[in-house]
Amino acid sequence: MGLPLGIALASRGLSVVLYDINAAAVDVVNSGTLPFAEEGAAQVLADVVEAGRLRATTEPSSVGSAENLVVVVGTPVDEHLNPDLGAVPRALDRCAEYLRDGQLVVLRSTVYPGVTALTEKLLAGKGIGVDVAFCPERIAEGKAMTELFELPQIVSARNPTALARAEALFRNLTTQIVHLEPEEAELAKLFTNTWRYIKFATANQFWMMANDFGLDFARIRHAISFDYPRAADIPMPGFAAGPCLFKDTMQLAAFNRNNFVLGHSAMLINEGLPLYLVSRLEERFDLSELTVGILGMAFKGGSDDPRESLAYKLRKILMLKTRETLCTDPYVVDDRFTPLDDVLKRADLLVIAAPHADYANLDTDKPVVDMWGLTGQGVRV
Ligand SMILES: NC(=O)c1ccc[n+]([C@@H]2O[C@H](COP(=O)([O-])OP(=O)(O)OC[C@H]3O[C@@H](n4cnc5c(N)ncnc54)[C@H](O)[C@@H]3O)[C@@H](O)[C@H]2O)c1
C-alpha cells in the first residue's frame, strides 16, 4: 500500500522517498519497475523515478528529511489470531533517532484500536514533538491508481493542527475528506473490512444452503438482486481471503474481548469453504483416483498476490485426497506450479480457485468446478 500511495503522491508533484527494510524491493522500485501488479501504476512509477520525484531507500535517516512521514507497515494477526499492537510503534522506533520536532506522522496501516494513542505516547515519551494523524487506507488492491484519487479520505487527529496538516496532504489526491476522532477512525477502518468479510460469508452460506438443496444460487441471487436495490450488493460465492479482511475481522474480535459472534461465524464460513468444496466433490468423485487441477492461486481474480489465499488451503486438502494435485496461475510466481496447458491435459477434474478472467472460456472437455459463476454455467457444485 505504501508504494501505490508514494506513486500517486509523486504523480501529483510531491517529492517522495520510500523507506523500507526490504533491500530487494528497494532495488526493484529504484529501477523504475513495479514489484507487483497494480493497474495503471507501472508507467507512472517509471515516469516519477525518471523525473527524480520518487526514490526508495533502506536508509532510516531518510525519514529525517521528510515534512510528512506516512507509516504503512503490515499489521498482521499472529498464529493465535492475536493482533500485533507493536508493528507500527516498532517501525517508528527503528528510525526514531532521525525524527525531528515539527514533522507530521501519519499512520496509514490498519491498526488495533488504541495504536494511534500508543504511538503518540511513545513519541512524546522520546521527547519528539511531532503531529500525529491516523488516515486509513481504504483502496482495494489492484485499484489503487483510481481509488486513491476518487475515494473520500478519512482523516483523524487529536489536535486541529495535525488534522489540518493531514488533510492538506491528502488534498493532493482527493477532494473529499471526512473527519473523525482517531479512535473512531481506527474502528471505521476495521468496521469497513469486517462488513465486507461478513457480506461474503453471508453469500457463501446462502450458496452452501442452496447447493445442499440441489439448487443453483446464481439463479436465486439474480432473481433477488434484479432491479431490487436493497439486495443489489449481495456478492457471488467464492473464496473470501487475502491479507486484510480475515485479519481485520480478527483484530476487531480481539478488541471486543473475543466476543464477536458475527465476525467469528464469518471466519468459520469463509475459512471452511475449501473443506466444503472438497466434501461436495467427494460425494461425486472418487478423488483418490483423480488428478485435480487448481486454476488460480491468487487470493482474488486478476491479482498476482497469493497472500492468505484460500487456494493454498484447497491445495493442501486436495493433496491429501487426490492421486495428484496440480496448481496453475497466470500471475502468481511459484516454482510448484504447472503451466495451464499441462494442467488441462493431465487433470481429470478442474477447480477454479481464483476467478481470473483467463478461465472464463476454457477449452476443455474435463469437468470444471466453478463456484464463482465465472464460466456462466451456474454455481452448483
Ligand atoms: N493490501 C491491501 O489491500 C490493503 C488495503 C488497505 C489497507 N491495508 C493495510 O495497509 C498496511 C500495509 O499493507 P500491505 O499489504 O501494503 O503490507 P506489505 O507487507 O505488502 O507492505 C509493508 C511494507 O513495509 C515494509 N516494512 C516492514 N517493516 C518495516 C519497517 N520497520 N520500516 C520500514 N519498512 C518496513 C515491508 O518490507 C513491506 O515492503 C496493513 O496495515 C494493511 O492492513 C492493506
TrEMBL record:
InterPro entries linked to this entry: 6-PGluconate_DH-like_C_sf, NAD(P)-bd_dom_sf, UDP-Glc/GDP-Man, UDP-Glc/GDP-Man_DH_C, UDP-Glc/GDP-Man_DH_C_sf, UDP-Glc/GDP-Man_DH_dimer, UDP-Glc/GDP-Man_DH_N, UDP_ManNAc/GlcNAc_DH
Record protein name field: UDP-N-acetyl-D-mannosaminuronic acid dehydrogenase
Residues that span the membrane, as ranges? none
Q: Which GO terms describe its biological process?
A: polysaccharide biosynthetic process
The signal peptide here is: none
Q: Which GO terms describe its molecular function?
A: NAD binding; oxidoreductase activity, acting on the CH-CH group of donors, NAD or NADP as acceptor; oxidoreductase activity, acting on the CH-OH group of donors, NAD or NADP as acceptor
Which residues are in the UDP-glucose/GDP-mannose dehydrogenase C-terminal domain? 293-377
Q: Which UniProt keywords apply?
A: NAD, Oxidoreductase
Q: Which Pfam families match?
A: UDPG_MGDP_dh, UDPG_MGDP_dh_C, UDPG_MGDP_dh_N
* Source species: Asanoa hainanensis
**Keyword Hydrolase annotated:** no
Coiled-coil stretches: none
Family according to the record: Belongs to the UDP-glucose/GDP-mannose dehydrogenase family.
